[in-house]
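Sanity check

After download, print the first record. It should look like this:
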Amino acid sequence: MTRENSRCWVCGSDSLQLVKPSNIPEALTSNSFSITDSHYGITAEIYRCASCGFLQCSDLAEVLPFYENLVDAGYEAGRQERSLQARKVLEVVQKIQPHGRLLDIGAGSGILVEQAIEMGYRAEGIEPSGWLQEMAVQRHLPVHLGTFPNPATSGPFDVITLINVIEHVPNPVELLRNIAESLSPGGTAIVVTPDVGSVAAHILGWKWWHFRVAHIGYFNKRTLLSALDQAGLQPVSMSRPGWFFTADYLCVRIHRYLPRFLRMSPPRFLKKLVVPVNLRDSWLIGCHRKLGNTNLEN
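Expected structure tokens:
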């Protein structure tokens, strides 16, 4: 663990304890960080903060180049069901912020941006993967190449969405603070991330499907609320988001938990069957900028 990453990424404490050794079998490549990766339980070294309980992979703080070169054809192949997921998230957004300018951070191939435009938002996104951003451009979707903050995505925004992104970054509080600073007065930030304090995570332990190379920070309710508070964001809603997958996608991933002799190729017809799933192991939090915080005024 390098000296600069020897502190907790949430509370800043230097009391980090190794709780899981690395079991990465080979040199990392961009493919190791695929959105559709199913090598559950494979992670770098995980440290727990003795002060706040946050779990982080301190030795994987420099991951941006992997995302910049990421190609994930499986992600784009699942566009239909991912569009359903995006719409469900946006239905939550509509209840808090029914219209306005929207920015999706970590926009991938523009799935949420596309759905937001259809729902009447003036939406755009930003994405570090050149391949995913090009997929969005080919669909004539306004997704910029890069990371946030970025000159191409200057605020203020009425809505900023951060869907399954914060667990991928080594600077979560800084990212959230930049989001708060880019919100319009009364604007809404939507944060979705896996919950390491969930029942599913406790039952499966280190085999939980969210323990994977690409996830370098693991939040529970306490540490997530702490990060939001430090960033100047006040939660106004909390819920457990559900997801949509094709049945064959689920079968392949369930097989990861079975002995090899029980693993079978799923029937082709399962590719056409979309299944809603909610294992209640993620948080979706809607936030406003905290009132009276002069450090966050535009």
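If your output differs, re-run the checksum step. Summary of this record's structure: The chain has one domain: 3-242+278-296.
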